[in-house]
Specification:
The structure is a single chain. By secondary structure, the protein is α+β, with helices and mostly antiparallel strands. Helix content is about 45%, strand content about 15%. Strands 2-1-11-5-6 form a five-stranded mixed sheet. Helix 2 runs antiparallel to helix 3 (about 40-80), helix 9 crosses helix 10 (about 300-310) and helix 9 packs across helix 12. The structure holds heme C. The site of heme C has 22 residues, from helix 9 and helix 10. Heme C binds next to helix 9 and helix 10.
């Protein structure tokens, strides 16, 4: 759609600009030829027709160049121009954070149709745990959305926020390594035809989910490999500045630079921050903020370690996923990190 429509105004522009000139050049030929001097008229006809041919070639070149350069910029202005101030449907995608050419904290919306009008990426998801079998997905590269909508260069983190306040963080490094896609269709179907979530809640995975081609972790921190980010039930994307988002959970105090604390920080930032918040940053799905985890780490570190290993053992109704692969070193790093937020009490 977009590609077919994009050149139209430019073709019109070219005809408008060059049409009359070409028409004049053509009209002038018979007039010059009508001088009734055969040599002169042959001369004028020969060079005149060359002139016309050159004019046509130049016009064609102009047209080709205009189309070539117009398509990307046309797509860019088109998507940003499509941002709507209000929601029109529960299927709209909410956009916020550092949006290009808009004041900070602005919220805008794009409809599914707006998003479907962009060039689509097709892939087969084979390592996405949201699907039980290899699944065909169609959508828009997150990188493309960020390029077109975010206020560069500050926006180096895209956060996908889900209906249950889970937050998946997509730093630029992740986007460049794994090429995540905002999914619009699964097996060619809109959200109403999508499979239910694979976690057993029988929940709808729409309006959006994010998937990527085969995932291979690009790093490992102790027992915590880089995790694929496959959020479903995504309702909002925020384009943010990574340092602003992670600053509140940077470890404070005299132990801040300890290697163990820094390692725990990286694990917590990767994992816990998706569901546990610090103030306005981080996911609010857990409802147990960072300082509560810190209080546990200081008062009863074994409880925190046991909860991370197997939440159901401590709380039969636990919704938190278990991390049985976390070894002692990983748990100790997490505990050392969370303890930095709790000022040790003076001994009486
Ligand atoms: C996918 C979401 C999710 C992630 C990721 C997550 N948690 Fe949780 N966590 C929860 C939820 C939800 C609860 C509330 C109780 C429950 O349902 O288990 C919770 C509760 C807890 C509790 C119990 C708090 C209390 O007051 O009893 C601890 C401790 C905890 N989480 C630690 C962690 C740590 C440490 C990490 C990172 C290694 C982490 N969680 C990652 C969702 C998550």
């Amino acid at each position: 759609m977009l590609f077919a429509n994009a050149p139209t105004p430019h073709c019109f522009f070219l005809l408008h600009q060059f049409g009359p000139a070409l028409a004049c050049a053509m009209q002038n030929l018979p007039v010059v030829g009508a001088l009734h001097c055969p040599d002169v008229s042959r001369y004028v006809l020969f060079y005149g027709s060359k002139l016309v041919a050159t004019a046509f070639r130049t016009a064609r070149l102009f047209l080709a160049l205009t189309i070539l350069f117009a398509i990307p910029s046309q797509a860019q202005t088109t998507l940003a121009a499509k941002l709507r101030a209000t929601r029109t449907s529960p299927l709209d995608l909410e956009l916020a954070g550092d949006l290009a050419n808009l004041p900070a904290n602005s919220t805008r919306y794009l409809t599914r149709e707006d998003l479907l009008s962009l060039p689509q990426t097709n892939l087969t998801a084979t390592t996405d745990t949201n699907f039980t079998t290899p699944t065909k997905i169609t959508g828009i590269a997150l990188q493309e959305l960020t390029l077109q909508l975010a206020a560069a260069p500050n926006s180096d983190l895209t956060i996908a926020i889900c209906g249950d306040q889970y937050r998946a963080n997509f730093p630029d490094a992740y986007i460049n390594a794994h090429h995540p896609v905002l999914v619009l269709k699964i097996n060619g179907q809109p959200p109403s035809g999508w499979p239910k979530d694979s976690e057993g809640h029988h929940a709808d995975m729409g309006p959006y989910l994010i998937s990527q081609p085969d995932f291979v972790p690009s790093f490992k921190i102790l027992a915590n490999p880089e995790e694929p980010q496959n959020p479903w039930g995504v309702i909002r994307l925020e384009f943010r500045d990574e340092s602003t988002v992670f600053r509140p959970i940077a470890p404070p105090g005299p132990q801040a630079q300890d290697q163990q604390v820094q390692t725990g920080y990286r694990v917590a930032q990767q994992n816990c921050f998706r569901c546990h918040n610090m103030g306005n940053e981080g996911g609010q799905k857990a409802g147990h903020p960072w300082l509560v985890l810190s209080a546990w780490a200081t008062a009863q570190p074994n409880y925190l370690a046991a909860y991370v290993h197997n939440p159901k053992q401590k709380n039969p109704n636990a919704q938190m996923p278990s991390f049985p692969e976390y070894d002692d070193a990983t748990l100790r790093a997490l505990i050392a990190y969370f303890q930095t937020f709790t000022t040790p009490r003076e001994k009486p």
